[in-house]
Amino acid sequence: MRLEEIRQQLRAAGAKTCHEERVLRAWTQNVGLDTRHRKAEDFLPRAVRQLLPALTGQLDGLARLRSEHPGEDGSARLLVELADGQTVESVLLPRDGLCVSTQVGCAVGCLFCMTGQEGLLRQVGSAEIVAQVVLARRRRKVTRVVFMGMGEPSHNLDNVMEAIETLGTVAGIGHKNLVFSTVGDRRAFERLPQGPVKPALALSLHTTKAELRTKLLPKAPRIDPDELVDLGEHYARTTGYPIQYQWTLLAGINDSDEEIEGIIRLLKGKYAMMNFIPYNSNEGLGFERPSWERASQLAGRLHQSGILARLRNSAGQDVDGGCGQLRARATAADGTTLREKPLKRIARAG
Ligand SMILES: C[S@@+](CC[C@H](N)C(=O)[O-])C[C@H]1O[C@@H](n2cnc3c(N)ncnc32)[C@H](O)[C@@H]1O
Ligand code: SF4
């Protein structure tokens, strides 16, 4: 469901823009419609008030909690059921963050990502994206939303842009605290700077070698790492927020000294930082994470060259690992299987 459909229902009942905003603010911020100074019946048209019980029922059905899996780091993975019974994952992150899903499955098919093994099953509507935030806010404070759950946001741009606008306005989240994470897509680079709410950008780079990137991210748009960094730099300068590069560390694949030299060449002097995320083991995908020592060494090498680098575990690693695994397990437990796909192993030499 799209947010626009909710707005249309309100408008059909006679709501003006200010009424729409008030209803959406109450929903997204989990607050009542009455304010200290004015009661709802003093400003909302009667037909709108009459619509509210049915609308609330619809909104509550958009995202329901199927199960919660707390991690040791203060995070918690939520398996969220959508109105049609499909499930996606949201992750409550330490320090008031939330990671949301934008698609059920994903067409990019990254070899190391569980979500990519399913292919795309369906888009997540803008109202369903915002509903994940509302669900999380019923459990904890949320002041930062990262679009790093299941799915590729640039393959669902209309819904994601609509959700970003709502989160950055009526839901009261700071624009730089909305983080759009992508493998890089020209449509996203065009659209993001035009929106009224400009999110921060995370670019999933993973390697500086164009050929290896094509193997690891088989259906990502063909943009060479050099050009991707140029596009990212332009966006960073436009918005004033640094680009957060993401690099899933795969032992023997993208953790070589040569890659580090490549990152230094690409990112030196850029308004950027590097997040190394050691691979989160997915059974059967055939990759391994490097040792923590090796990972720290890589981050240290970037630091020495003046590039800000962070080494971090993806949140909730102790509770069913990486993105898409909770859903995969729940799907398997339901007796259905993920679409089988032969593992395409890539040459260690890259
Ligand atoms: C799940 S994706 C969603 C957003 C977007 N599709 C993207 O790739 O940036 C978010 C991040 O999770 C990372 N990721 C996926 N599977 C992983 C795994 N098994 N271990 C560690 N990181 C993983 C991806 O590399 C990506 O940087
Ligand atoms: S890492 Fe991102 S783009 Fe790649 S398959 Fe997973 S969700 Fe899709």
From TrEMBL:
It comes from the Bacteria. One of its GO terms (cellular component) is cytoplasm. InterPro entries: Aldolase_TIM (IPR013785), Methyltransferase_A (IPR040072), rRNA_lsu_MTrfase_RlmN/Cfr (IPR004383), rSAM (IPR007197), rSAM_sf (IPR058240). It holds the Pfam family Radical_SAM. GO terms for biological process: rRNA base methylation; tRNA methylation. GO terms for molecular function: 4 iron, 4 sulfur cluster binding; metal ion binding; RNA methyltransferase activity. Its cofactor is [4Fe-4S] cluster. Keywords: 4Fe-4S, Cytoplasm, Disulfide bond, Iron, Iron-sulfur, Metal-binding, Methyltransferase, S-adenosyl-L-methionine, Transferase. Residues 92-318 form the Radical SAM core domain. It is found in: Cytoplasm. The keyword Protease does not apply. NCBIfam families: PRK14464.1 (NF011034). Belongs to the radical SAM superfamily. RlmN family. This is rRNA methyltransferase. It comes from Dechloromonas denitrificans.
